[in-house]
């Protein structure tokens, strides 16, 4: 093994760790407030749902009417631009992760074949 090969490999690992640390920092800075906002939104949604269910049961509404109304409400919330955008973003992120992993594994296989 030559010294330049080890130096390039070490430089690659240092750069990957550095980029990973930067991405993790950005994820923490931007992700934590979004996570808190989503948690509060979920609590509010659960509270509104429980209150709506209590009012519906109190007024003597049929179980199937309650289930149908709840189903329509869930379906309409999944078709909002925010939900579609979030799902699209996750799809793009997943595709980028697959491409990155494929490139990583191809590089690893080529390095193993070249050392044989």
For the report, how would you describe the main beta sheet? none
Shape: elongated
**Distance between the first and last residues' Cα:** 12 Å
Structural class determined from secondary elements: mainly alpha
Multimer state: single chain
Gyration radius from CA atoms, angstroms: 25 Å
Number of helices: 3
Which percent range fits the helix content? over 70%
Strand element count: 0
Could you report the average pLDDT, rounded to the nearest whole number?
86
Weakly predicted, low-confidence segments: none
Q: What are the secondary-structure elements, in order, as H or E?
A: HHH
How would you describe the overall organization of this protein?
The chain has a domain at 1-60. It is elongated. The chain has helices at 3-58, 63-78, 81-115. By secondary structure, it is mainly alpha-helical.
Supply the key terms:
0% strand, 3 helices
């Amino acid at each position: 093994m030559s010294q330049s090969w080890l130096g390039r490999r070490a430089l690659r690992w240092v750069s990957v760790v550095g980029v990973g640390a930067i991405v993790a920092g950005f994820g923490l800075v931007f992700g934590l407030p979004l996570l808190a906002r989503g948690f509060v939104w979920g609590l509010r949604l659960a509270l509104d749902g429980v209150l709506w269910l209590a009012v519906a049961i109190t007024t003597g509404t049929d179980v199937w009417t309650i289930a149908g109304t709840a189903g329509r409400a869930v379906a309409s919330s999944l078709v909002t631009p925010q939900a579609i955008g979030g799902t699209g973003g996750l799809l793009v992120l997943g595709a980028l992760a697959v491409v990155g992993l494929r490139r990583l594994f191809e590089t690893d296989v080529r390095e193993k074949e070249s050392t044989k």
